Amino acid sequence: VAVMQHVKNTPDVSLGVAAFSEAQAREIQDQLDLLRRDARQHDEFFTRSDLNRFFIKSLENVQGDERDWILFSTTFGRDGTGRFMRRFGALGMKGGERRLNVATSRARDKVVIFSSMPIEEISDAHRQCKTPLRPRDFLQSYLLYASAISEGHLDEAEALLNRLHRPSSTRIA
Fold this sequence. Notes:
Elements: H1 2-9, E1 15-19, H2 22-36, H3 43-47, E2 54-58, E3 67-74, H4 96-104, E4 107-115, H5 135-150, H6 154-164
Parallel strand pairs: 1-2, 1-3, 3-4
């Protein structure tokens, strides 16, 4: 729905959708295909490759592709029993923080985040005031930062950035 609203309201602004996994990217594409059946007047936005306006890609495949706006799908949530498993596919593996950086730096102007994750449960790093070390620590930090910026809490956002750049206490001179 957000993609179709974008096309309707800002058709001159290029758009990319970055999803956590290939499965999520396919699901988003399938849902978009259903919506497009009733909105053929917007087909040019999606089909004119010379305009390079649109993509839907997983984190692993978004490298090198920039658009004006990026819709970032971080839809990992609770399972049927209410548990949050903290498994984030490629983002949760070694080097996942680099994939996160690539995905979140593809926007020239704006990133819009769609998330179903309980941010405070992604990692223990924030609650324990630790410098992020693991990919999920960086994911949590990024989502907390984006939330603070979105809500206009600039001091909180700056504090989160400072935590990312805090020197390690284990550094050897």
